[in-house]
Amino acid sequence: MLPYGRQSISDEDVAAVTAVLGTDWLTTGPAVTRFEEDLAAVTGNAAVAVTSGTAALHVAYAAAGVGPGQDVVVAPLTFVATAATAALLGANVIFADVCDDTGNLDPDAAKAAVTASTSVIAGVDYAGHPIDASVLSDIAHDAGALLLEDAAHSVGGRWHGHRVGELADLTTLSFFPTKNLTTAEGGAVVSPSPSLIAGARGFRNHGLVRDRDAQRFPDEGPWHQEVHAFGLNYRLPDLLAALGSSQLTRLDAFVARRAEIHARYDAALADVPEVRTPSRRDGADPAWHLYPLRVLDGRRRELFEHLRASGVGVQVNYVPAYWHPVFEDLGYRRGMCPVAEEYYRQEISLPLFPDLTDADVDRVASVVRAYFGYGS
């Protein structure tokens, strides 16, 4: 079975991880610091490494002070974590619809969803295409809120020349194996704000205060540490951080190869009227994580099953977040965001990862074409 996503691990990656095993620091050590510095060089702002993309969202919302009595506007065409982590902090999640072309948060819908209690607007770089950050930033800031960019799909991408990581008040990254680079499990929070970075660092480490000048009882002893606000253990181990730094040396190559594969699919499927290939807006230089093909006329499930039966791994990304029973039980109902729901009904993710060969791409495209009655 050809997978729809797969990590790319080199001998250098293995050596980087193995080297850490010979040191005294398996966690909370110098490899984490180096990885954060390497991420900052790629994203343009300070980075806080954490254990997953979900942890990054939780940490970012906590650093923003999200809590009960606050509203967080979220795009629904995303993995449930974008919304769940805000809800876990006690916020009221308000879903706003997406743009039909990109699947990204629609600025008009986001603006209509803003209330006097809105503290964060969370847009998702769906499939790797950056959000319309300048417009969404203005909407958020006019409301006294922050813009969070869920960039789990898009590290290495750009929007009108600006790097992902420079576009929002808070940016969250994911390094799951199928993403654009991997630390096995892992994520990061990126921000230009020293106070938000400090809040993220505190929350990922139980809220511990070790700075004597900041402690309430500094004379307790040299061993003393305090918790002033609750946090959790979201520390990324040095083993995984070393893998991340090694992977970052190939990020540009990963992004370039993903773009080549994307373009090859586009060309192969351009004349098939039963499908709709992904859109790319002017000014976008995506780091494509997914190839989200749109299957028209209600035939998505049939094509999905046909591809799987033909040995081609495919996925659907995503069930609208509020369709999950946990949100249904909170009173959310289907029909709230019709554009996102129609996008979901049509979407199928074709295989896309750097080690995918041109022959693999051509094979997948041929299976799709043949299903609709077109030759190669």
Automatic annotation (TrEMBL):
GO biological process terms on file: polysaccharide biosynthetic process
Record organism: Pseudonocardia endophytica
Entry annotation: catalytic residues: K179 (proton acceptor)
Cross-referenced InterPro entries: DegT/StrS_aminotransferase, PyrdxlP-dep_Trfase, PyrdxlP-dep_Trfase_major, PyrdxlP-dep_Trfase_small
Pfam families the record matches: DegT_DnrJ_EryC1
Entry-linked PANTHER family: DTDP-4-AMINO-4,6-DIDEOXYGALACTOSE TRANSAMINASE, TRANSAMINASE
Cofactor: pyridoxal 5'-phosphate
Entry keyword set: Pyridoxal phosphate
Name of the protein: dTDP-4-amino-4,6-dideoxygalactose transaminase
UniProt family annotation: Belongs to the DegT/DnrJ/EryC1 family.
An example Gene Ontology molecular-function term: transaminase activity
